[in-house]
């Protein structure tokens, strides 16, 4: 792998960990703000932290075995930073009481379908089974989050 691609991938994985933590922080803020759904948001926030740890593990794997990986469809660090900034802005709005609880679900759906959440599996190519397992867990969690959010949105429409 070329040094430039390697460095970009390392930076992207670090930023993806930060993005997962930002999303977890937002979900935790919602848990504190809205008791009826607090357990769902707390659990989802914990899963986002595990996703951040997974990104850190992938970053360590890449550093340890760079020859086992090739760049895929990289997410540019600027895009990830913009995503993080937007999530933190939403968290600030929650803290100020500017987002009605009913809107949490819509914001969460937008986050879980965002490019950052939906394309992370494509950022690198590898045959490493451990990497595939880690990425598969994150993908399954994200799909479950989105399914739960969509179910709740369907209930709200009734």
Please describe what this structure looks like:
This protein is mostly helical. It contains six helices and two strands. The chain has a two-stranded antiparallel ribbon with strand order 1-2. The longest helix has 31 residues, at 3-33. The protein starts with a helix and ends with a helix.
Task: Quickly list its features.
158 residues; mainly alpha; Ferritin; 6 helices; 78% helix
Concise structural overview:
The chain is mainly alpha-helical and 158 residues long.
How is the topology of this model organized?
Elements: H1 3-33, H2 38-64, E1 69-71, H3 77-95, H4 101-112, H5 115-119, E2 124-126, H6 129-157
Helix pairs in contact: 1-2, 1-3, 1-4, 2-6, 4-6
- Mean of residue pLDDT values: 89
Can you give the helix content as a percent range?
Answer: over 70%
* Biggest sheet record: 2 strands, antiparallel
The backbone outline, from C-alpha atoms, is elongated
Low-confidence stretches: none
Count of helical regions: 6
* Fraction in beta strands: under 5%
CATH topology tier name:
Ferritin
| N-to-C span | 52 Å
Strand order in space, largest sheet: 1-2
* Derived structural class: mainly alpha
């Amino acid at each position: 792998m070329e040094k430039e691609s390697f460095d970009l991938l390392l930076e992207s994985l670090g930023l993806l960990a930060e993005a997962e933590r930002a999303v977890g922080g937002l979900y935790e803020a919602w848990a504190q703000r809205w008791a009826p759904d607090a357990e769902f948001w707390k659990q989802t926030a914990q899963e986002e932290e595990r996703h951040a740890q997974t990104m850190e593990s992938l970053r360590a794997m890449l550093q340890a075995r760079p020859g086992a990986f090739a760049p895929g469809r990289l997410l540019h660090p600027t895009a990830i930073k913009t995503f993080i900034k937007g999530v933190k802005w939403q968290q600030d709005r929650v803290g100020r009481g500017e987002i009605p609880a009913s809107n949490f679900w819509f914001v969460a759906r937008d986050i879980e379908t965002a490019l950052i959440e939906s394309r992370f599996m494509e950022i690198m190519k590898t045959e490493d089974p451990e990497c595939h397992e880690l990425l598969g867990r994150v993908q399954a969690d994200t799909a479950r989050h989105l399914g739960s959010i969509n179910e709740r949105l369907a209930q709200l429409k009734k």
